[in-house]
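Internal ticket - ligand job 507, adenosine-5'-triphosphate:
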Amino acid sequence: MLDEMEKLVSLCKRRGFIFPSSEVYGGINGFWDYGPLGVELKRNIKDAWWADNVRSRDDMVGLDCSIIMNPRVWEASGHVGGFSDPMVDCRATKERYRADQMYVFAYVFPRTNQKGEPTEAWLAGLGGGPEEAAEAVEKRAAKLAKKFGEPTDPPAVIPYLQVSAEDREKVIGPATDERGTLTEPRSFNLMFKTFVGALESESNVAYLRPETAQGIFANFKNVVDTGRVKLPFGIAQIGKSFRNEINPRNFTFRSREFEQMEIEFFCRPDESQEWYAYWRNARFRWYVDHGLQSDRLRLRDHEPEELAFYSKATADIEYAFPFGTSELEGIAHRGDYDLKQHIQHSGKDLSYFDEERKERFVPHVVEPSAGADRATLAFLCEAYIEDEVGGESRTVLKFHPRLAPVKAAVFPLVKRDGMPEKAEAIYRELKRRFNVFYDEKGAIGRRYRRQDEAGTPFCITVDSQTLTDGTVTFRDRDTCRQWRVPGEGAARALDDLLQGGSVPEAS
Ligand code: ATP
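stdout (structure tokens):
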């Protein structure tokens, strides 16, 4: 399983999708850079999201708010007081963990050592969930059996935070084989702090936003006052957010700097359940429509006890990544909580006057909140396929054409007989409309393979027949089928295919 992830990370590095940030200086944990192919992929995802959720709708407008806001915003939103995760340190290894993501396994159970002392010990495992943690524990249990006794079967699984302070002494941390090296869980605020202006004093403290949503709430009145919107309507924003995550991991999945794509959809309280149901389904379908078609994609409704106290309902769109099933996007019915918090803290009237019904009220809000980096990672994981064509194995990224970084590659079969000139002319023509790539180096099979790895849906080759009848060879990434198209019709043919036109039979 992890192997799968290692292969993907290595492909991302090698082909220029994603690099560790500031790698020449040894990198910095939790920060990533998108390379030439990665930036196109992520931009296509953000553009598709914006086109589908903002531009094509009559009931949505966009915003682009500043990253640093008046710190009182974060007091009102509850982030200053409550945006924290419980953190645990290991004194032996200096590793730091999120206590809410640790599970304890009463796996190695009471035995006595040679001195007759009880050696009851619990193994702690980490993971996206108990299953992933169990896998990690399984491996260590055999090794530690000599020291602590035979594992019990089946192990009892307890979230670490439910273990009593006294029992925590028995826990062996995830990266050591000594007991009692974990500190007490401490609460750790995830917001990055900085100072605005010359003075580094408490009164100048500001925060890098941990979510884009609050910029939307803070501008609710401004947007309503522009007169362009009427309830029900949404405000959307794409932008960077920052969280000083305790344990950034799983490639870009949990980063300290990431991009969010968020909508706050405002509506009448009596219509809010319908809008919640609408967005919950619409957002799930969006991922399916863009290629997450496997049973790895799930929609999970939160249990009542999981809900924030103000939320009437929440659902997560989850993807089964190689490292575990985790959240891509959350859709939350947040009631009137956020606007009311800002009314209370700012003293401003953020209510809405319904002209038709002559009523004033605080709208309810449904929030679909997605991560551009997590979406990018899911599309990468889903697209990654190793298969065989003509007895040769290949790695291919089967991206949806709308998301593929490069739409087509143009090649001359060989570097003579005027083929490069013809190919370049087609490339120049296509480049006016599509992100295309030109390559004349190496054997044609190798060039196809390189494009497969980059996820390029189509290759267009100028060959000897082109010189006689003007047609070029189109090749489809997924089926490897090849067929001929008149050179001057290449742009139209490519456009049709990218719009979902079917790939012809091989010719
Ligand atoms: P998690 O439980 O995984 O920390 P969360 O529930 O705190 O996530 P939200 O606050 O709901 O996440 O944020 C909305 C979206 O922003 C998430 O669904 C995810 O796509 C993205 N996101 C949140 N934290 C990170 C992060 N550290 N790295 C990358 N994306 C993130």
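Auto-summary: The first strand starts at residue 18 and ends at 20. Residues 211, 243, 245, 254-255, 258, 260, 327-330, 369-371, 373-374 surround adenosine-5'-triphosphate (CB under 6 Å).
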